[in-house]
Design goal:
Blueprint: E1 3-8, H1 24-27, E2 32-33, E3 40-43, E4 52-54, E5 61-62, E6 67-71, E7 76-78, E8 83-92, E9 100-108, H2 126-136, E10 158-163, H3 172-179, H4 181-195, E11 199-205, H5 209-221, E12 227-233, H6 242-250, E13 265-268, H7 270-280, E14 287-293, E15 301-306, H8 311-316, E16 328-330, E17 337-339, E18 352-354, H9 371-375, H10 382-390, H11 394-399, H12 410-414, H13 421-488
Parallel strand pairs: 1-12, 2-15, 10-11, 10-13, 11-12, 14-18
Antiparallel strand pairs: 3-9, 4-6, 5-8, 6-7, 8-9, 14-15, 16-17, 16-18
Helix pairs in contact: 3-5, 4-7, 10-13
Length: about 500
C-alpha cells in the first residue's frame, strides 16, 4: 500500500469565476470504445511536438504502432490502427488556425496487427525513460501537447498530477481517473523513482468524489513506496492552470517568465502519466479518451477513440447528425476553439468536442466597470490591454502584461459589454510570437551576412598575403639571378 494523505487546500485562488460546470452531461453514461472510422487523418506538422516529416509513403501497409511521423523535437507519432496509407495530402486539421496541413491518410484494415516496442524492465535510468517517451509519442494530453520528456530534468523535487479539470463540460480526466486509475498511479511512481522525486501531489477539485474514491482504492492496492499528498481544491475556474495549481498545492509562486520545472516542480496531466505507464510496457499512444458533450448532442458521453478519428465520426457516435451542427468547439467553452471542418482528425491533445447552441450578443463599448480585472487570476488589467491592442499598440499591451495572460477567458465570462477579450489577447500573443520570430530570423540573417562578409574579407586578406608572398619570392629569385650574373661577368 502506498502512503498517502488527503488534505483541504488552505489557500484561495485570487480572481477566477464559478461557472456552471455541466459535467453531469457526459458522465451519466459509461465510457465506451468507438468503432474504427473509414479513414484516419494524421497532420504531419500539427500532431504535437513541432513540425514533422512523414516516415511512410503512399501505398505502405502499417500496423497499429508503426511509426509514421517524426517531429523536430524527436517525438514519434504512430499509426493508431493497422491499415494502408492511401494518401499524403493537404487536409483540414483540428487546430485554432483553421488552416490545412500536409496529412497522412490511413484506411484501417480492421486487422489487429500490432507493432509495439519492447517493454522497459526496471531498473532503468532517466535517459532510457526519456527515449521511451520519445518513441511512444508521450505529450501533455491536457491540451498543450508539450513533449513530456523535456520537463524531466535533474533536481526535480515534486511531481504534481493536475487532476483539477476545472473547465466546464470537460470530463475526460475525471473519466480516466475513474476507469484507469492504476495506470496513472503507476506512471507517476515510475517517473518519480526514475528521477528520484521525493513527493507526488495530486491536485483535485472537490467536485470529483468518484475519482477521489478510485484514487484511494488504487493507492491502497499499490505496492509502491511513494508518498502521495492529495490536495482537495475548491471548485473554481481556473484552479487547474499550471501556475495556480503550483501555488494552491505547494504555496510556491512561479515568477513571471518562468516555468514550474525551473523551480523543481513537474506538472503532468493524468492521461499523460497513464500513457507513460503503458509506454513502459511497450505501447505507444494510439487512443485517447475524448469527452463528447453539449446540449446539441443527443447522447453525450466519454469515448475511447483512435488518434486521427474524424470529428464527424465522433459526432455520429452520439446519435447526432453532423449536418445538424454548423461548428463544434474543440476543448471547453472557456479556452476551446471553433472548428467548422468536421473531416479533420482528432490529435493527442483533443480532450473534448463541445456542441451547443450559444447566441453571441453584439459587442458594446467598454463601460470601465472593472469586472474583468476583478476575476483575472493573474491580477492584470484586461481593459487596458484590449485598449492598447485595439489601438495598434502591441508594445503597450506587452507592458500591461500580455505575456503573462493565460488566456483563461474568465474576463470574457463577466464582461457586460460582451467584448471578446481573450480572443484579442490570443491574437496579440500570436503577434508577439510572430514578431519575436521575425526578429530572430532577421538576427540570424544579419549574423550570416556579417559572417559571410568576415569570411570574404578573410579570404581576400589570405589571397593578398599569398600574392605578396609570391611577389616577394619572385623578387628574391630575380635578385639572386642578377647577383649570379654579375659574379660570372
Amino acid at each position: 500500500m502506498a502512503e498517502y494523505q488527503i488534505r483541504r487546500c488552505d489557500r484561495q485562488l485570487e480572481g477566477g469565476i464559478h461557472p456552471e460546470t455541466h459535467k453531469d452531461l457526459s458522465t451519466t453514461e459509461p465510457c465506451v470504445f468507438v468503432d474504427d472510422p473509414k479513414r484516419l487523418v494524421f497532420p504531419i506538422h500539427f500532431s504535437g511536438g513541432g513540425p514533422g516529416e512523414a516516415l511512410v509513403a503512399v501505398g505502405d501497409t502499417v500496423s497499429q504502432g508503426t511509426p509514421i511521423i517524426k517531429c523536430q523535437s524527436g517525438i514519434i507519432h504512430v499509426a493508431s490502427r493497422a491499415g494502408t496509407v492511401i494518401d499524403i495530402t493537404d487536409h483540414a486539421i483540428t487546430h485554432p488556425s483553421a488552416n490545412q496541413s500536409a496529412s497522412i491518410i490511413i484506411e484501417p484494415s480492421g486487422l489487429k496487427e500490432q507493432s509495439y516496442l519492447d517493454p522497459l524492465v526496471w531498473p532503468f535510468d532517466a535517459d532510457s525513460l526519456r527515449n521511451r517517451a520519445i518513441e511512444a509519442g508521450i505529450l501533455g494530453l491536457g491540451g498543450a501537447g508539450f513533449p513530456s520528456f523535456k520537463k524531466w530534468s535533474d533536481g526535480t523535487q515534486t511531481l504534481i498530477i493536475n487532476a483539477a479539470e476545472c473547465e466546464p463540460y470537460l470530463t475526460a480526466d475525471d473519466t480516466l481517473m475513474r476507469i484507469d486509475t492504476h495506470s496513472m498511479i503507476r506512471g507517476a511512481c515510475m517517473l518519480s523513482r526514475t528521477l528520484d522525486i521525493k513527493t507526488i501531489v495530486i491536485g483535485i477539485e472537490d467536485n470529483k468524489p468518484e475519482a477521489l474514491e478510485a484514487i484511494e482504492d488504487a493507492l491502497k492496492e499499490s505496492r509502491s513506496d511513494c508518498f502521495f499528498d492529495i490536495v482537495l481544491l475548491d471548485t473554481k475556474y481556473p484552479s487547474g492552470s499550471e501556475r495556480h495549481l503550483v501555488w494552491l498545492t505547494l504555496g510556491i509562486e512561479v515568477p513571471t517568465g518562468s516555468r514550474s520545472v525551473e523551480l523543481g516542480v513537474i506538472v503532468h496531466n493524468p492521461g499523460t502519466l497513464a500513457a507513460l505507464s503503458r509506454a513502459i510496457d511497450g505501447k505507444p499512444i494510439t487512443d485517447r479518451i475524448v469527452t463528447l458533450t453539449g446540449e446539441a448532442l443527443k447522447a453525450p458521453k466519454n469515448v475511447i477513440a483512435p488518434i486521427g478519428t474524424p470529428i464527424n465520426h465522433l459526432i455520429e457516435a452520439t446519435d447526432t447528425s453532423p449536418s445538424s451542427l454548423t461548428s463544434i468547439t474543440v476543448g471547453g467553452p472557456m479556452m476551446g476553439y471553433a472548428v467548422t471542418e468536421f473531416t479533420a482528425g482528432i490529435t493527442k491533445t483533443t480532450n473534448c468536442l463541445l456542441a451547443r447552441d450559444v447566441e453571441i450578443p453584439p459587442e458594446s463599448p467598454c463601460i470601465r466597470c472593472g469586472a474583468c480585472a476583478t476575476v483575472c487570476p493573474i491580477r492584470l488589467q484586461p481593459q487596458q490591454m484590449v485598449f492598447a491592442l485595439k489601438g495598434g499598440s502591441l508594445d503597450l499591451a506587452v507592458h500591461e502584461g500580455l505575456g503573462d495572460c493565460i488566456e483563461c477567458a474568465a474576463c470574457n465570462a463577466v464582461c457586460p459589454s460582451h467584448i471578446p477579450l481573450a480572443e484579442w489577447f490570443r491574437l496579440g500573443r500570436f503577434e508577439v510570437r510572430d514578431q519575436a520570430n521575425e526578429q530572430r530570423l532577421a538576427s540570424e540573417a544579419r549574423e550570416r551576412f556579417e559572417a559571410r562578409n568576415a569570411r570574404l574579407e578573410r579570404i581576400a586578406q589570405e589571397q593578398e598575403a599569398k600574392r605578396a608572398a609570391r611577389k616577394a619570392k619572385t623578387a628574391d629569385a630575380l635578385e639572386k639571378a642578377r647577383k649570379a650574373r654579375e659574379q660570372t661577368a
